Amino acid sequence: MDSQTQNASLLRLQTVEKRIVRVLELAGGVMEEFSNPNGPRKELVNNHCSEFMQIIKVFSSNT
Questions:
Q1: Can you supply one Gene Ontology CC term for this chain's record (predicted)?
Q2: Rounded distance, CA 25 to CA 47, Å?
Q3: Which one is predicted more confidently, 57 or 63?
């Protein structure tokens, strides 16, 4: 594998890694909201879930 191909592969891997981290952050945020003693904030949960699904769609379309 030449240097340019390796760099492209590493960039793709880094992008995927960032998306995975973001998905986990979103899931954690939703879990925190559900454990909120005052009840979850609907708008925040909706926003997190929407972003989560957008990232999942990107993963699905790239496989």
A1: mediator complex
A2: 13
A3: 57
Q: For 1-63, give the DSSP string.
A: --HHHHHHHHHHHHHHHHHHHHHHHHHHHHHHHHT-TT---HHHHHHHHHHHHHHHHHHHHT-
pLDDT band at 63 (very low <50, low <70, confident <90, very high): low
Q: Return the sign of the alpha-carbon dihedral for residues 44, 50, 54, 59.
A: positive
Q: Supply the Cα-derived Rg of the chain in whole angstroms.
A: 16
Cβ atoms within 10 Å, residue 22: 13
Please indicate, yes or no, whether the overall pTM of this predicted structure exceeds 0.85. no
Closest CA relative to residue 36, chosen from 46, 45, 47? 45
